[in-house]
Amino acid sequence: MTKTARVYGGSLYDLAAEEKLDGQIMEQMIAIRQIFRENPGYLKLLGEPAIPEDERLKMIEEAFGGQAERYLVNFLKLLCERKILREFAGCCEEFIRRYNSAHGIAEAVVTSAVKLSETQMEALKAKLEKLSGKKVYLVQKTDASVLGGLRVELEGVQLDGTVQSRISGISKKLNELVV
């Protein structure tokens, strides 16, 4: 994430929190970020210097004006005017980071060989919440190289309960005994 994204995303969060719209704006930012990801040509079009700025701003207003919070629409227009709309995803990351920090939410990424069931996810979430003392938002990833077990990253700490990790640990201990 760039310094620009941190500054702009943080500033939008400060305004949203002051107006008590942080949750609503965060949901809308995530939806707009997804729209931009699914339609990269649209984002490129909004940054095209050959199209007059007022036309690009009008496109933003037409696309989001009736659905998104006014502060967010104006934020998109500001990024467009400053020719930094490509930073929107980073602004979104910073906004979410600040929101989570302010609301005692920790994001955890769980990696497993196969998709976990809802029951397994809930049990893991409860255990992580107890461990961290925070509300945990789980993001699930699958990786076939994880033969069994789970790898969890929570607030920069990696908890590795994979079979591969356990085998490596045993191998290391055996090597220490041999030497």
TrEMBL record:
Question: Which keywords does UniProt give here?
Answer: ATP synthesis, Cell membrane, CF(1), Hydrogen ion transport, Ion transport, Membrane, Transport
Under PANTHER family, the record lists: ATP SYNTHASE DELTA CHAIN
Q: Does the keyword Transcription apply?
A: no
InterPro entries for this protein:
ATP_synth_OSCP/delta_N_sf, ATPase_OSCP/d_CS, ATPase_OSCP/dsu
Please tell me the species this chain comes from: Blautia wexlerae
Pfam families associated with the record? OSCP (PF00213)
Query: Which family is this protein grouped under?
Result: Belongs to the ATPase delta chain family.
Q: Which domain of life is it from?
A: Bacteria
Q: What is this protein called?
A: ATP synthase subunit delta
Q: PROSITE patterns given for it?
A: ATPASE_DELTA
Does the record carry Cell membrane as a key word?
yes
Q: Topology versus the membrane, per the UniProt entry?
A: Peripheral membrane protein
Main function: F(1)F(0) ATP synthase produces ATP from ADP in the presence of a proton or sodium gradient. F-type ATPases consist of two structural domains, F(1) containing the extramembraneous catalytic core and F(0) containing the membrane proton channel, linked together by a central stalk and a peripheral stalk. During catalysis, ATP synthesis in the catalytic domain of F(1) is coupled via a rotary mechanism of the central stalk subunits to proton translocation.
* Compartments, record wording: Cell membrane; Membrane
The cross-references to Gene3D superfamilies, in alphabetical order and at most eight, read:
N-terminal domain of the delta subunit of the F1F0-ATP synthase
